[in-house]
Amino acid sequence: MKFDYSKICSSFLKGLSQRTTNVVERRFGLKSGKKETLEAIGKSYGLTRERVRQIEEEGFSKIRSRIKEHQGVFQNFKKVLKSFGSLKEEKALFDSLNGEKSQNYIFFLLTINNDFQRVSDDKNLYSFWTADKNSVTSAKKVIKETINYLERQKEQITLEKLFSAQGENLLKIFNRKLNKNIFQSYLEISKKIQTSPAGLYGLKDWIEINPRGIKDRAYLVLREEKAPLHFRKVAVAIEKLPFPSPKKVHTATVHNELIKDERFVLVGRGLYALEEWGYGPGAVKDVIIKILKESKEPLLKKEISEKVLKERFVKENTVLLNLNDKNYFSKTSDGKYTIKES
After folding, report:
1. Which residue spans within the chain are E strands per DSSP?
2. What is the pTM of this model?
Protein backbone atom coordinates (compact mmCIF):
# COMPACT_ATOMS: atom_id res chain seq x y z
CA MET A 1 0.00 0.00 0.00
CA LYS A 2 1.36 3.41 -0.98
CA PHE A 3 0.99 6.59 1.05
CA ASP A 4 2.08 10.17 0.46
CA TYR A 5 4.11 10.40 3.65
CA SER A 6 5.15 14.01 2.97
CA LYS A 7 1.53 15.13 2.59
CA ILE A 8 0.48 13.29 5.77
CA CYS A 9 3.28 14.93 7.77
CA SER A 10 2.34 18.38 6.46
CA SER A 11 -1.25 17.74 7.50
CA PHE A 12 -0.18 16.99 11.08
CA LEU A 13 1.86 20.20 11.24
CA LYS A 14 -1.07 22.41 10.27
CA GLY A 15 -2.39 24.49 13.15
CA LEU A 16 0.95 24.59 14.98
CA SER A 17 2.72 27.89 15.54
CA GLN A 18 5.37 28.81 13.00
CA ARG A 19 8.16 28.31 15.53
CA THR A 20 6.86 24.91 16.66
CA THR A 21 6.47 23.82 13.04
CA ASN A 22 10.00 24.96 12.27
CA VAL A 23 11.44 23.13 15.29
CA VAL A 24 9.71 19.86 14.37
CA GLU A 25 10.67 20.14 10.71
CA ARG A 26 14.32 20.74 11.57
CA ARG A 27 14.44 18.02 14.22
CA PHE A 28 13.21 15.41 11.73
CA GLY A 29 14.66 16.88 8.54
CA LEU A 30 11.22 17.12 6.97
CA LYS A 31 12.21 19.97 4.68
CA SER A 32 15.98 19.95 4.32
CA GLY A 33 16.39 16.17 4.63
CA LYS A 34 18.94 16.73 7.39
CA LYS A 35 18.02 16.18 11.04
CA GLU A 36 19.27 18.78 13.50
CA THR A 37 20.06 18.53 17.19
CA LEU A 38 18.21 20.38 19.95
CA GLU A 39 21.37 22.35 20.64
CA ALA A 40 21.81 23.49 17.03
CA ILE A 41 18.19 24.62 16.79
CA GLY A 42 18.42 26.34 20.15
CA LYS A 43 21.42 28.40 19.07
CA SER A 44 19.57 29.75 16.05
CA TYR A 45 16.69 30.88 18.28
CA GLY A 46 18.77 31.95 21.27
CA LEU A 47 17.08 29.22 23.36
CA THR A 48 18.40 26.49 25.62
CA ARG A 49 18.43 22.89 24.52
CA GLU A 50 15.79 22.09 27.15
CA ARG A 51 13.46 24.84 25.93
CA VAL A 52 13.64 23.51 22.36
CA ARG A 53 12.79 20.04 23.68
CA GLN A 54 9.76 21.49 25.47
CA ILE A 55 8.59 23.21 22.28
CA GLU A 56 8.96 19.92 20.42
CA GLU A 57 6.95 18.05 23.09
CA GLU A 58 4.22 20.71 23.02
CA GLY A 59 3.96 20.19 19.28
CA PHE A 60 3.81 16.40 19.71
CA SER A 61 1.00 16.76 22.26
CA LYS A 62 -1.16 18.68 19.77
CA ILE A 63 -0.29 16.35 16.90
CA ARG A 64 -1.09 13.20 18.92
CA SER A 65 -4.57 14.48 19.67
CA ARG A 66 -5.21 14.20 15.91
CA ILE A 67 -3.71 10.76 15.28
CA LYS A 68 -7.10 9.36 14.24
CA GLU A 69 -7.13 11.66 11.19
CA HIS A 70 -4.70 9.30 9.47
CA GLN A 71 -5.45 5.89 10.97
CA GLY A 72 -4.83 4.22 7.61
CA VAL A 73 -1.10 4.88 7.57
CA PHE A 74 -0.64 3.74 11.17
CA GLN A 75 -2.70 0.60 10.63
CA ASN A 76 -0.43 -0.18 7.69
CA PHE A 77 2.63 0.32 9.90
CA LYS A 78 1.18 -2.17 12.40
CA LYS A 79 0.29 -4.65 9.68
CA VAL A 80 3.82 -4.57 8.24
CA LEU A 81 5.43 -4.87 11.67
CA LYS A 82 3.12 -7.75 12.61
CA SER A 83 4.20 -9.66 9.50
CA PHE A 84 7.76 -9.51 10.89
CA GLY A 85 6.84 -10.53 14.42
CA SER A 86 6.06 -6.97 15.56
CA LEU A 87 9.72 -6.03 15.26
CA LYS A 88 11.92 -4.86 12.38
CA GLU A 89 15.40 -3.37 11.94
CA GLU A 90 14.98 0.33 11.19
CA LYS A 91 16.33 0.59 7.65
CA ALA A 92 14.70 -2.69 6.65
CA LEU A 93 11.37 -1.41 7.98
CA PHE A 94 11.64 1.80 5.96
CA ASP A 95 12.39 -0.27 2.85
CA SER A 96 9.37 -2.48 3.56
CA LEU A 97 7.19 0.63 3.77
CA ASN A 98 8.35 1.81 0.35
CA GLY A 99 10.11 4.64 2.08
CA GLU A 100 13.49 4.73 0.35
CA LYS A 101 13.13 8.49 -0.17
CA SER A 102 10.74 9.07 2.72
CA GLN A 103 12.72 7.80 5.71
CA ASN A 104 12.52 11.06 7.67
CA TYR A 105 8.75 11.27 7.15
CA ILE A 106 8.23 7.67 8.27
CA PHE A 107 10.50 8.22 11.27
CA PHE A 108 8.41 11.23 12.26
CA LEU A 109 5.10 9.37 11.90
CA LEU A 110 6.34 6.41 13.94
CA THR A 111 7.62 8.79 16.62
CA ILE A 112 4.36 10.70 17.10
CA ASN A 113 2.32 7.53 17.60
CA ASN A 114 2.86 5.96 21.01
CA ASP A 115 1.86 2.55 19.65
CA PHE A 116 5.36 2.27 18.22
CA GLN A 117 8.66 2.23 20.12
CA ARG A 118 12.13 2.72 18.77
CA VAL A 119 15.01 0.84 20.41
CA SER A 120 18.34 2.55 19.75
CA ASP A 121 21.36 0.53 18.69
CA ASP A 122 23.88 -0.72 21.21
CA LYS A 123 26.94 -2.97 21.06
CA ASN A 124 24.79 -6.03 20.31
CA LEU A 125 21.76 -4.81 18.34
CA TYR A 126 20.97 -2.43 15.49
CA SER A 127 18.23 0.19 15.91
CA PHE A 128 14.77 -1.27 15.40
CA TRP A 129 11.08 -0.47 15.77
CA THR A 130 8.50 -2.57 17.58
CA ALA A 131 4.75 -2.52 18.19
CA ASP A 132 4.95 -5.11 20.98
CA LYS A 133 7.53 -5.05 23.76
CA ASN A 134 7.15 -8.81 24.25
CA SER A 135 8.61 -9.29 20.78
CA VAL A 136 11.88 -7.75 21.99
CA THR A 137 12.28 -10.44 24.65
CA SER A 138 11.45 -13.16 22.12
CA ALA A 139 13.88 -11.76 19.56
CA LYS A 140 16.72 -11.68 22.08
CA LYS A 141 16.08 -15.34 22.97
CA VAL A 142 16.08 -16.33 19.30
CA ILE A 143 19.32 -14.42 18.68
CA LYS A 144 21.02 -16.01 21.71
CA GLU A 145 20.02 -19.54 20.68
CA THR A 146 21.12 -18.94 17.09
CA ILE A 147 24.50 -17.54 18.11
CA ASN A 148 25.08 -20.61 20.33
CA TYR A 149 24.18 -22.88 17.42
CA LEU A 150 26.51 -21.11 14.98
CA GLU A 151 29.36 -21.17 17.50
CA ARG A 152 28.95 -24.95 17.73
CA GLN A 153 28.63 -25.50 13.99
CA LYS A 154 31.48 -23.15 13.03
CA GLU A 155 30.37 -22.92 9.41
CA GLN A 156 28.14 -20.77 7.22
CA ILE A 157 24.59 -21.93 6.64
CA THR A 158 21.56 -20.98 4.55
CA LEU A 159 18.56 -19.33 6.19
CA GLU A 160 16.43 -22.38 5.39
CA LYS A 161 18.81 -24.81 7.10
CA LEU A 162 19.34 -22.46 10.04
CA PHE A 163 15.58 -22.06 10.48
CA SER A 164 15.10 -25.82 10.32
CA ALA A 165 17.94 -26.48 12.76
CA GLN A 166 16.45 -24.03 15.26
CA GLY A 167 12.94 -25.45 14.98
CA GLU A 168 12.91 -27.16 18.36
CA ASN A 169 14.32 -24.13 20.18
CA LEU A 170 11.79 -21.84 18.48
CA LEU A 171 8.92 -24.07 19.64
CA LYS A 172 10.17 -23.81 23.23
CA ILE A 173 10.30 -20.00 22.99
CA PHE A 174 6.96 -19.42 21.24
CA ASN A 175 4.98 -22.61 21.99
CA ARG A 176 3.98 -22.55 18.32
CA LYS A 177 5.53 -22.84 14.88
CA LEU A 178 7.32 -19.64 13.93
CA ASN A 179 7.17 -18.04 10.49
CA LYS A 180 10.53 -17.99 8.68
CA ASN A 181 10.14 -14.27 7.86
CA ILE A 182 9.77 -13.49 11.55
CA PHE A 183 12.84 -15.59 12.37
CA GLN A 184 14.85 -13.70 9.74
CA SER A 185 13.56 -10.35 10.99
CA TYR A 186 14.72 -11.17 14.51
CA LEU A 187 18.18 -12.17 13.30
CA GLU A 188 18.50 -8.93 11.28
CA ILE A 189 18.73 -6.79 14.41
CA SER A 190 21.74 -8.73 15.71
CA LYS A 191 25.16 -7.19 15.12
CA LYS A 192 26.86 -10.52 15.77
CA ILE A 193 24.87 -12.57 13.24
CA GLN A 194 25.53 -11.45 9.68
CA THR A 195 25.31 -12.76 6.14
CA SER A 196 28.04 -13.28 3.55
CA PRO A 197 27.77 -11.85 0.01
CA ALA A 198 26.37 -15.27 -0.94
CA GLY A 199 23.55 -14.83 1.58
CA LEU A 200 24.86 -17.45 4.02
CA TYR A 201 24.51 -16.85 7.76
CA GLY A 202 27.40 -16.82 10.19
CA LEU A 203 29.04 -14.77 12.92
CA LYS A 204 30.51 -11.33 12.39
CA ASP A 205 34.04 -12.33 13.46
CA TRP A 206 34.24 -15.16 10.90
CA ILE A 207 36.47 -14.24 7.97
CA GLU A 208 33.96 -15.78 5.56
CA ILE A 209 31.51 -13.13 6.73
CA ASN A 210 33.77 -10.21 7.53
CA PRO A 211 37.37 -10.64 6.24
CA ARG A 212 39.82 -8.18 7.76
CA GLY A 213 42.58 -6.96 5.52
CA ILE A 214 44.65 -8.57 2.79
CA LYS A 215 45.60 -11.68 4.77
CA ASP A 216 42.04 -12.82 5.42
CA ARG A 217 41.09 -12.19 1.80
CA ALA A 218 44.13 -14.15 0.62
CA TYR A 219 43.13 -17.01 2.91
CA LEU A 220 39.66 -17.10 1.31
CA VAL A 221 41.23 -17.12 -2.16
CA LEU A 222 43.54 -20.07 -1.41
CA ARG A 223 40.84 -22.01 0.39
CA GLU A 224 38.60 -21.63 -2.65
CA GLU A 225 41.45 -22.54 -5.02
CA LYS A 226 42.36 -25.65 -2.95
CA ALA A 227 45.90 -25.58 -4.37
CA PRO A 228 49.07 -23.49 -4.02
CA LEU A 229 48.95 -20.19 -5.90
CA HIS A 230 51.48 -17.56 -6.88
CA PHE A 231 51.11 -14.35 -4.88
CA ARG A 232 50.49 -12.36 -8.08
CA LYS A 233 47.49 -14.56 -8.86
CA VAL A 234 46.35 -14.26 -5.26
CA ALA A 235 46.36 -10.47 -5.64
CA VAL A 236 44.29 -10.66 -8.81
CA ALA A 237 41.81 -13.07 -7.17
CA ILE A 238 41.43 -10.80 -4.13
CA GLU A 239 40.21 -8.01 -6.42
CA LYS A 240 37.48 -10.34 -7.68
CA LEU A 241 36.13 -11.28 -4.24
CA PRO A 242 32.57 -10.07 -3.57
CA PHE A 243 33.71 -8.23 -0.45
CA PRO A 244 34.37 -4.50 -0.89
CA SER A 245 38.10 -3.76 -0.81
CA PRO A 246 39.13 -0.50 0.91
CA LYS A 247 41.93 0.17 -1.57
CA LYS A 248 43.71 -1.29 -4.58
CA VAL A 249 45.51 -4.54 -3.89
CA HIS A 250 49.23 -4.42 -4.74
CA THR A 251 51.12 -7.65 -5.43
CA ALA A 252 54.07 -6.61 -3.27
CA THR A 253 51.72 -5.98 -0.35
CA VAL A 254 50.16 -9.42 -0.75
CA HIS A 255 53.61 -11.06 -0.76
CA ASN A 256 54.68 -9.14 2.36
CA GLU A 257 51.48 -9.98 4.22
CA LEU A 258 51.52 -13.68 3.38
CA ILE A 259 55.12 -14.23 4.38
CA LYS A 260 54.37 -12.83 7.87
CA ASP A 261 51.25 -14.93 8.51
CA GLU A 262 51.60 -18.48 9.90
CA ARG A 263 48.51 -19.62 8.00
CA PHE A 264 50.49 -19.44 4.76
CA VAL A 265 53.53 -21.46 3.68
CA LEU A 266 55.90 -20.43 0.89
CA VAL A 267 56.22 -23.69 -1.06
CA GLY A 268 58.08 -22.46 -4.10
CA ARG A 269 59.21 -19.32 -5.86
CA GLY A 270 56.30 -17.05 -5.05
CA LEU A 271 53.89 -19.96 -4.55
CA TYR A 272 51.88 -20.05 -1.33
CA ALA A 273 49.85 -22.84 0.24
CA LEU A 274 47.82 -23.06 3.43
CA GLU A 275 49.48 -24.52 6.51
CA GLU A 276 46.24 -26.40 7.29
CA TRP A 277 46.77 -28.48 4.12
CA GLY A 278 49.71 -30.16 5.85
CA TYR A 279 52.53 -28.02 4.50
CA GLY A 280 55.19 -27.43 7.12
CA PRO A 281 56.91 -24.08 7.59
CA GLY A 282 60.49 -23.30 6.67
CA ALA A 283 62.92 -23.51 3.76
CA VAL A 284 63.81 -26.68 1.82
CA LYS A 285 66.53 -27.45 4.37
CA ASP A 286 63.93 -27.36 7.18
CA VAL A 287 61.63 -29.68 5.25
CA ILE A 288 64.46 -32.20 4.78
CA ILE A 289 65.29 -32.10 8.49
CA LYS A 290 61.61 -32.69 9.34
CA ILE A 291 61.43 -35.64 6.90
CA LEU A 292 64.54 -37.28 8.34
CA LYS A 293 63.33 -36.78 11.92
CA GLU A 294 59.99 -38.38 11.09
CA SER A 295 61.75 -41.25 9.31
CA LYS A 296 63.98 -41.96 12.32
CA GLU A 297 66.46 -43.63 9.97
CA PRO A 298 68.68 -42.56 7.05
CA LEU A 299 67.00 -42.24 3.64
CA LEU A 300 68.14 -42.45 0.06
CA LYS A 301 68.50 -39.28 -1.98
CA LYS A 302 65.57 -40.32 -4.17
CA GLU A 303 63.31 -41.01 -1.17
CA ILE A 304 64.07 -37.62 0.35
CA SER A 305 63.59 -35.83 -2.94
CA GLU A 306 60.17 -37.42 -3.53
CA LYS A 307 58.97 -36.41 -0.09
CA VAL A 308 60.29 -32.85 -0.38
CA LEU A 309 58.67 -32.31 -3.77
CA LYS A 310 55.30 -33.14 -2.24
CA GLU A 311 55.71 -30.16 0.06
CA ARG A 312 57.72 -27.72 -2.03
CA PHE A 313 57.42 -26.65 -5.65
CA VAL A 314 61.16 -26.56 -6.36
CA LYS A 315 63.52 -28.27 -8.77
CA GLU A 316 65.01 -31.60 -7.73
CA ASN A 317 68.47 -30.06 -8.00
CA THR A 318 67.52 -27.63 -5.20
CA VAL A 319 66.90 -30.60 -2.90
CA LEU A 320 70.25 -32.11 -3.84
CA LEU A 321 72.10 -28.85 -3.19
CA ASN A 322 70.61 -28.71 0.31
CA LEU A 323 71.51 -32.33 1.02
CA ASN A 324 75.13 -31.53 0.18
CA ASP A 325 75.24 -28.92 2.94
CA LYS A 326 77.60 -30.68 5.37
CA ASN A 327 76.65 -28.26 8.14
CA TYR A 328 73.29 -30.01 8.42
CA PHE A 329 73.45 -33.41 6.70
CA SER A 330 75.85 -36.31 6.48
CA LYS A 331 76.06 -39.31 4.14
CA THR A 332 76.26 -42.86 5.45
CA SER A 333 78.51 -45.58 4.03
CA ASP A 334 75.58 -47.10 2.14
CA GLY A 335 74.77 -43.81 0.36
CA LYS A 336 71.90 -42.67 2.56
CA TYR A 337 71.46 -39.30 4.22
CA THR A 338 70.92 -38.42 7.85
CA ILE A 339 70.96 -35.31 10.07
CA LYS A 340 74.47 -34.38 11.08
CA GLU A 341 75.07 -34.95 14.75
CA SER A 342 75.94 -31.79 16.65
Report:
1. 87-89, 117-119, 128-130, 193-195, 201-203, 229-230, 264-266, 271-274, 299-300, 329-331, 336-339
2. 0.79
